[in-house]
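Example complex used in Figure S2.
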Amino acid sequence: MPRTRTNQRPSRAVRRPARSAPARGPVAPAPPLDPRSAERLIAIAMGRGADFAEVYAERTERTGVSLEEGRIRSAQYGVDRGVGIRAISGAKVGYAWSDDLDPEALERAAQTAAHIAAAPREVTPPRVRRVPLPTHYRVLEPLASSAVDRKVELVLRGDRAARRYDPRVQQVFGSYADQTRTICVGNSAGHWAQDVQDLCRLHFQVVAAGKGGERRTGFYGGGGRVDLRYFESFTPEAAAQEAARQAVATLGAVDAPAGPQTVILAPGWSGILLHEAIGHGLEADFIRKGTSLFTGKVGQKVASELVTVIDDGTVANARGSLNVDDEGIPAERKVLIEGGVLRGYMSDRLNAQLLGGRSTGSGRRESFRHPPMPRMTNTFLAPGDETPEEILASVKRGLYCAHFGGGQVDISNGNFVFEVAEAYLIEDGKLGRPVKNATLIGVGPEVLRHVSRVGCDPTPDPGIGTCGKDGQMVQVGVGLPTVRIDELTVGGTSLGGRA
Amino acid sequence: MESALLEVAEKAVTRARRRGAPQADAWAEEARESSVRVRDGEVEDLQQSTGKGVGVRVVSAGRLGFAYGSDLSAAGLDALIDRALALAKSAAPDPANRLPGARELSRRHGDLGLLDPAVEALSTEWKIEAAKTMERAGRGIDPRVKTFESVGASDVVAEIAVASSEGLADAYRSSYAALFAVPVAQGDDGQLQTGYWVDQRRFLSDLEPAEQVGRKAAERAVRMLGAKKGPTCKVPVVLEPLQAAAFFGGIAAALDGKRVHQKASFLAGRLGERIAPGWLGLVDDGLYPRGVGSRPFDGEGLPTRRNPLVEGGELRGYLYDTYTALKAKAKSTATAGRSYQSLPHIGTTTLLVQAERPQSAEQLVRGVKKGLYVTAMLGHGADTVTGDFSQGAAGLWIENGELARPVQELTIAGNLLEMLSALDAAGDDLDMRGTVGAPTVRFAELTVAGA
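Predicted assembly (950 residues):
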């Protein structure tokens, strides 16, 4: 089942716009595979009668730093490189990959992929031509070439700030992780694209101890397709203290209520609601197979008229943004739902062809070890016109959800959950006592019909989300303004006045 | 055992020593994986690949560095080693950073039954046939089985090699084959429901027949048709074996010795305490024959063993690696997980939930007047720091001891310590299809939230 698993929370921090400086030094790094080799491999993959073949090559360098008990536990580095080859015959897909870049190993992989078809023939290698691409992220200094000590320092600074925040802070876990991913993709239609995708995130978890052995946790962090200068404005101190604030603020939390409630979602990472409640169900593979409850509903009203949902892979420097997807197609801004009416789906090349549409630049893959499939990029709810204060004042009794964990959806029956990590009771339009963590559950279209107020404060999440589908993890962004939902089931333990 | 992969691991350690690492270990993997999926009686996709790589861990002046890659040439290894050594300079010194010694690394147990020659020789045609059989069987049980999210078969044959500067060079090979079916059924009102059934075994002969996997998956989808939201109330809750396995997997995460040492687990400081009814046991058994989680040595090369975690309802032990054991003045449980892309980390091998005096699963349900039988859970659920538990659930509503009607859009919630105490019965149907084996279990009362 599609599943978003993450440990992150929203932020009011607004991402910087793209810089106007050149993308990177005077010379872009060489692609992980040269176009002539790719052409030969495409010809081999087509050699048994496939209609389409594609070669994807990747080189990703990763660096990580982890901190616990006030010191750097380890620093890590790794490099993943390889080639994935796909042959398509009708709706059938053959896929093989190799992390051995020896030409013979690559040819073997191409032959394995070719086996999906069974009518051997002579194929002339296609000539691939590079397509010009837009630039949605400009990173002056590739993360892979930035000194590790600067990354270490970010984590140490956060640790000190969290401990300074409150004497009840008992443990701080800090991490920094980045990757510089260089990809190229060529196919039998003569398409060739290259991109360099830097990505980083800084993250803190804080445990606070209260009376009688009570423990509460807080999480916060952020990043994106940015270089280390990003952390001059998104400071490790602020991120770690936000994690500490959550942990300390929820000490003394009472049991969460159980059952349907009026719920207000704070802006930001709460956008995971959209990702789960509706986003996955609009991915074209589920539509083609008829397993999504949104199949065949384009043009129909599927949500409150206050709901306009956009998946946008072109947001400057955002975690889910792509200059080009993993099939070599430029990312787009797609309006999925407009005023409550379903407008379209997110598609990769294969599903677009089988459904008779076009790719929306949504074909993504975890790495060269996986074939691409339709995925989200950055998924947002368009803002409304009410202030957050007005929305809070409109609720007599309910739950204010300030921070969230991860979520998961079953795209067939539409049941989805997302986890609330910091929440407060609402009494007469004001925030009351903190309540313990609870899971919220709903059915996608029903919840979207119950959206009754949308705030004027659109907020992207701070850049931490990772989504898992069919075993493949990809980085995503979400965003939401303050939203009121009139009925959502809260998975608490307190029955209140109920029997 | 002699193999090219073991040579790579040994070479990495020798070169690391030569390049200045006082202590180093290397973990190398090579795996051939293949999978088949079908749709409407035809092959939908075929994948087959072989990958390999090596990860090198160095300890220098008490500092830990790590690097991995898939270039196994001498120059490739040297580049990784130099990276790991340079990175170690950025980490803090800690006397607990050391590799297990020669005595601890001493000879491991014999054959655990991890490699099946029949899986090694498994043909693509066999997998295609199995997948088609599952699809046919699933569709055959009810016309409302409309399509499949996916249905297929896969297998993996892998070799793992480890070498350490402290005197270890060892390798083993393993296999597993898996069948999976995720059908979607559609009711007259248009409601869609998925089922899910999967089996994964080291040996082909242990695998559930394909026909049965397809049928069970379809039955699980069809019986959910017409599901409505259940009521909000406190009632007995029964978890079927797959859901019980997930629940106890969450409990094991709270037994991570590092989290316990850092007082970041709700089970910290409870060693020797009664945390569950006297009939309950929980054991991590790395030697469990043919277990998907079983292995001859752990991520640090330590010989695996059997670790009692809960016995007679009492908490008997936590899970440790070498580093945490040194800090907590305990012994490693040899349960560290590792892939070539990661440092060793505390985990479990094969986890078994044991119950004395079990009843049949039917008896467990029959004993409930009104309650919930859980067949699917959504979300993460357990907060191992605080012990709070809240998770999405769907399944069948129990009325007067019978599975009466499908329900969905529910949550079950509680505090894990209270939930463990609330366990009041277990079934005799231990299911061992993954790395956690559990029977049906029943809680006397949990909060269910719905309408």
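Residues 4-222 of chain B form a domain with the PmbA/TldD fold fold (CATH 3.30.2290.10). The mean pLDDT of chain B is 96.
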